[in-house]
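Technical annex B. To support the medicinal chemistry partners, we prepared a structural model of the target in complex with pyridoxal-5'-phosphate, based solely on the information shown next.
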Amino acid sequence: MTDEQIYEKDARDYLPVFARYRIVLDHGDGVYVYDTHGKKYIDFLGGIAVNVLGHNHPALVKAVSEQAGKMIHCSNLYYTQVQADAAEKLIKISGLGKVFFGNSGAEANEGAIKLARKYAHGISPDKSQIITAVHSFHGRTIATLTATGQPKYQEGFGPLPAGFDYVPYNDIEALEKMMSSNTAAVMLEPIQGEGGVHVPDAAYLERVRELCDKFDAVLIFDEIQTGVGRSGSFFTFEKFGVKPDIVTLAKGLAGGVPIGAFIASDKVAAAFHAGDHGSTFGGNPLACAAANVVLDLISDSDFLANVEDMGAYMKSRLEIIKTEYPQLVKEVRGMGLILGMELTKPGRDIVNACLEKGAIINCTAGNVLRFVPPLIVTRQHIDEVCDILEKVMKDFA
Ligand SMILES: Cc1ncc(COP(=O)(O)O)c(C=O)c1O
């Protein structure tokens, strides 16, 4: 089948919700993917922060193949060792109390919101307010798009669930004004990803923690984009020294096999009883076999130290590009291997030009180039992408 035939089929059959780039990908290898013509692309998007071990990592392929040969799925009415192992690892790494597995980020956040509401309801039926941040992104189910502090994701989907309020990110006074004993939860990304790679002040997150303690509100960190080693520690909350009551994960947790998880402190988790939540596929053996590989490799301190080093190196190269093209680049920001380059104009043409030259990068929030590559990137990979970006910037300057 030709690419044109695939585009035609897609236009005819698939809901037109994605603004896709016109390439058909065929396979991947490490940090590279190949299209149907054999053209090679260096992949610094990694399936949007998903392919943390790159493409076709041998340990991941082995674990998934072996598990597929044994049992792909069984219901949560029974136990499996792979699920028990994955849960144990997450509890150990997070220092929290109980985990629940779902299938996606939105579903993880949906579960976290449910648990927070249930916990708060146990204190008072009026304690239901969920506070999130402007420019946040928490998913596309009805509750999570309501939690998402961006009207463009909400328009046309009303009536939205009640009880959600929004405050500017990194603005502690706004949060102080908004909170009360009726606040059930504050839900934040420790670095806003989709909203444009915004890193908050550590003092802000510390104060958020204090306010949640004061009002007995559940602090939920959405680490769907920032978790699983992305910032150079397994959870980004470790970088800030602020521990949430619930943390949510998805994306990279099983290296590309669909999975989501929320992990809660024992105190909050105690609000859920049999029948309060569930999932047919959540935590199935295939996803958990993959997650076990990811958890073993990425919780390693040398692995994480390398993410930090590579992130610092890439940031320094992006800073150089900023000084070379100040008319195009406003700011470089981020932590570890979640990096953003804010442009003075929309980024889509630059992304397209990079793609043309064999580099997959992404633009979010209209004008922020976002780099969330596989966590196995080397200096050579970073140089390859930055060299392409530099050439493209020259053409646009
Ligand atoms: C911070 C954050 N939360 C939630 C989600 C939603 O995850 P999913 O697309 O797996 O539902 C995303 C996806 O980009 C995200 O970045």
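Notes passed to the chemistry partners:
The longest helix spans residues 301-324.
The first strand starts at residue 25 and ends at 29.
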